[in-house]
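User: I want to check something. If I give you two sequences, will you return the structure for each one separately, not as a complex?

Assistant: Yes, each is folded on its own. Here is the first sequence with its structure:
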Amino acid sequence: MNLPELPFALRPYGPEGGWTYENGTLTGRAGARQDRFVPPGGDTLEPASDAPRLLGAAPAGDFQLVARVKVGFAAAFDAGVLYLHTGDREWAKLCLELSPERPTICTVVTRGHSDDVNSSVVDGDTYWLRLSRTGHAFAFHASADGEKWTFVRVFTLGTPEQAATASVGFLAQSPTGEGCEVAFDRIAFRPEGLADLRDGS
């Protein structure tokens, strides 16, 4: 799939997500009990389940991937996600998630096993998300209006070589429910990093 806002093509991974793009909006759907998460207390490195993803190889250098996400919340942990993938055991998610009763900005970073962090409760079913690469590091931000950004997390993932060849894109999940519709609009790709992760820009 080619989106005019992105300088790279997207390919589907995982279960069928019914991804479509029309009039600037990308839509997809997670099926019942679909998630991409490796429980931190488990003895396996395999995800408990899998979720629909639409990913492409980011161009070299620093960048920002921005989108406004709208989630059809129906069950706990339904989410629309900006997704980062650097290796089979290394991926990360920036989520607008029903966690478990109120919309929340959540993050997951998986290095073999997944961690799980709630950042802030937000109002409504729509929020802006931003995934950035700066050097060998990645940053997550969230925003109510797409103008003033709140710092959520900065981290490394995989080797510097893996970070330089990361894939990025979109994911839908419904870990406990019967399915979840997600829509991403105002999608933008900026071939530049962030000078200051914490100044709101």
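And separately, the second sequence with its own structure:
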Amino acid sequence: MLNNIGIPGLLLIAVVVLVLFGRGKVSGLMGEVGKGITAFKKGVNDGTKEIEDEAAKVDEEASETVEKDKV
């Protein structure tokens, strides 16, 4: 259904949105979308770092256990 929307269709949709909501609301909305994307990326990076830290901790504990078993 959306495969047939080309550049002219997108431009028409953009013009209609601008006419209905005005430039101020659209630019404010885009600013909020940008902030949301930035927060999402930060959350993903923090989650990845947390998982890597936990994996390193588990590896360290496992190696300590192996060292104790050897002695």
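Because they were folded independently, the notes below concern the second chain alone. The chain has a mean pLDDT of 86. Helices lie at 7-70.
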